[in-house]
Structures are given as C-alpha cells and as structure tokens.
Design brief:
Helix content is 79%, strand content 0%.
Length: 140
C-alpha cells in the first residue's frame, strides 16, 4: 500500500498529466477544425498558401494522437514507467523547441504560449515524477 505522500505525489502527477491532455485537446481541435481561428486567437501569422492549412491540421491530429499516448501515465505512473518518463520528457522537449523557435529561429512571439505551457507542465511533472521514483526507490 502506498504511503500518504506517495498518494499525494502520484495524484498531483496524474492531475498534471490530465491537465496536459486537456490542453493538448483544446489546442488540437481548433487546429484541425478551424486553423484560421487559432491563428487569429493566438496572433499567429497567416498561412501563406491556400492549401497550406493542411500542415496545421496535420499537427493538430498528431497532437491528439500524442495526447492519447499519455493516458497510461495518467492511469498508473509507476506501472507504466516508460510512458510516464516519455510524457515528462516530451513536455520538456516541446517547451524547449517552442522557446528555441521564437528566440533563435525568429518565429512570432505568439508561439511562446506553447513554450510556457509545455515547459511549465514538463517541469512540474518532472519534479513530481522524480519524487514518486525516489519514494519508490527508498521503499525497495
């Protein structure tokens, strides 16, 4: 049986994973259904070509698929350690990617929203997941 602190860390981790899934779906559905709307809502540059919105729609579909991969980490972070670690790592790397895109590749500042969202979720998830693993290691 898990100790109370383990339950708190695991519960908080699950909440953050669920929050990440909700954020992914909230960003992906408009990208798939109405790329023009998400561009104007986030003050992103318009798509330059008539058919170029297919790329934004494709990214939305991939984001939906990626968020479905986080479900095992949501259900049981310790049982599916690889998935949990991949969820944390992907959030951190996506945060770094978006930050890099804005700061070093001259993409619009509107993309910083993605950097902050992914980076903050990734950092919080990483701290909680390390705490869960440390408690598990101490118990063994």
């Amino acid at each position: 049986m898990l100790a109370r602190a383990d339950n708190l860390h695991a519960s908080a981790f699950r909440v953050l994973v669920a929050l990440g899934i909700v954020a992914d779906v909230a960003l992906a559905l408009p990208a798939v259904l109405s790329p023009d709307w998400i561009e104007s809502a986030l003050y992103l540059p318009p798509v330059l070509s008539f058919k170029a919105d297919i790329w934004q729609r494709g990214v939305g579909v991939l984001r939906l698929l990626l968020s479905s991969m986080y479900v095992p980490a949501l259900v049981s972070p310790l049982r599916d350690r690889y998935v949990s670690a991949a969820a944390v790592t992907s959030r951190l790397l996506l945060g770094l990617f978006w930050f890099w895109a804005v700061e070093f590749a001259d993409y619009p500042r509107g993309y910083l929203l993605f950097a902050y969202l992914e980076g903050a979720l990734g950092a919080a998830q990483a701290a909680l997941y390390v705490a869960i693993l440390r408690r598990e290691h101490r118990r063994a």
